[in-house]
Amino acid sequence: MLELQALSKHFGGVHAVDDLSLTVNRGEIFGLIGPNGSGKSTTVNLICGVFPVTAGTISFEGHDITSAQPHRAVAAGLARTFQNIRLFSHLTVWQNLWVAQGRTDGHESSRFVKRWLAGDSTARRSVSDLIAFAGLSDRGDEYAGNLAFGEQRRLELARALATGPKLLLLDEPAAGMNLEEVRELDERLRQLVERGITILLVEHVMELVMGVTDRIAVLNFGRKIAEGTPAEIQNDEAAQEAYLGSSNKA
Amino acid sequence: MDFYYGLLQIIGMHTILGLSAYIVLLTGQVTLAQAGFFAIGAYIAGMLTVLAGWHLVPSMLVAAVVSGTVACLVGFPALRIKGLMLVVATMAFGEAVRLFWFNFDYQRSKGEALVGPLGGEGFKQIRYFPENGWTTGEVATFVWIWVALIMAALWWIDRSRAGAVLRAVGEDELAAQSVGINLTAVKVTAFAVGGFIAGIGGAIYAHYTTHIEHSNFGVILATFAIAYPILGGLTNVVGTLLAVIFIQGFLVEGLRFLGDWRNLLFGALIVLAMNVRPRGLIDERAMLFLRRMFGLAKRGTNA
Prior knowledge:
Number of helices of chain A: 10
Order of helices and strands of chain B: HHHHEEEHHHHHHHHH
Distance between the termini of chain B: 49 Å
Number of domains of chain B: 1
Number of domains of chain A: 2
Strand content of chain A: 15-25%
Helix content of chain A: 25-40%
Number of helices of chain B: 13
Shape of chain A: globular
Radius of gyration of chain A: 18 Å
Oligomer: heterodimer
Structural class of chain B: mainly alpha
Largest sheet of chain B: 3 strands, antiparallel
Shape of chain B: globular
Structural class of chain A: alpha/beta
Distance between the termini of chain A: 36 Å
Number of strands of chain B: 3
CATH architecture of the largest domain in chain A: 3-Layer(aba) Sandwich
Largest interface: A-B, 42 and 26 residues
Radius of gyration of chain B: 20 Å
Largest sheet of chain A: 6 strands, mixed
């Protein structure tokens, strides 16, 4: 579904991502792990078109989306969350989701103006569904900036879903969460896969990654050093050394 | 009575000017170009009524379309510039427009006199209102019909999804792009709509004062244009109106008895107001308070 081929991104002399190739298959949760600064977030930003790539190609469902602008990537069916939550904090929960519903399916184009200005009843219903999914049912009119940290994370996930994605890129969605919240997130991600959404998960929290993913790639210094199932990665020496080893000691 | 009609007209025109900056400010772009668009509207509409002999309303609309189009063209380069650099760039544009009119001559004879813009001497005798026998009361009403139309349109945009999109861009451009918003389209549209509104304001202004010159449209006017919505708060359009009433009605007219000291107090009061209400006179909390007071349901409960 998503295919990165020999992807590189250099910032001056720094090779943030170096000759990275990987394939995410439809319907799976693919984990991307690695120590700090190993290029995980840069990879997400490249896929989403935040910065242009130095070399290599990105294709999504057979279409080349290399260096496409972020809103084009969304139109193609990619949605993301950010490592540091980026909500519209002076908009309400409801508006945060409403804004994200810009993608119109072809057959609805005649109602474009209505959708754009008012949001039709389908749009309204789907916003309500998303609010419920995020567990924010009674907080639709709250300003996003007033939400608690965990609620903000859930809202950001719901906002990504509001764009109607086929592939979700989650950049450390469990950062700062307690164990209970991680378990909830795990549950939520499984629900999304059941709905037919594919997930690329960038994460540090091993409880989540090892439990929920189907396959994992390990990055170090912008290069892929291992790829396989969670069990394989746990027994992989290079991965152990680069990442798991150090985090186990800590 | 004429004094109050005059004041009403001034407040109305400045409100339109402030609203033209309001929609651009919503997208997080601080613009000092609004005086330029105001000038384009003023000169174009003036030329259409005086030289071409058009009715005022179509002249205004054509003038607004011209300044909206120019604003659209300014919007594209402005996309690549942010923050302080955008302020400088838009200010430079505003000055360029002013200097254009400073150098622009196009006079025709009308009866015995020559009329039309004459460079540094300005554009005199835009006498549409007196020639057609409008009273100051009628002119004031005319101005306020436009104010009401523009405020209603912006209020409606604000409450629609488009308003939320504009604000989303203003808050976080990267996040806005990441939910599928086309930044280019949103920012350029905001500029174009702002330019259109400023054009209407300028067109009214030219006919109100009957004599315009380049120096009317300098940086001071551009600063006022953004001061109104910023002081009033970007929560809704009413804030801009209140800020204009506060500045033009109270600070400029009400404190006239202070003579030249007025200007000092003027600046101090704006600084004070911004410190007391950093998000503007009408901020989110004020709206919440008003809603509770009038028992109105909060928007979005239809969710």
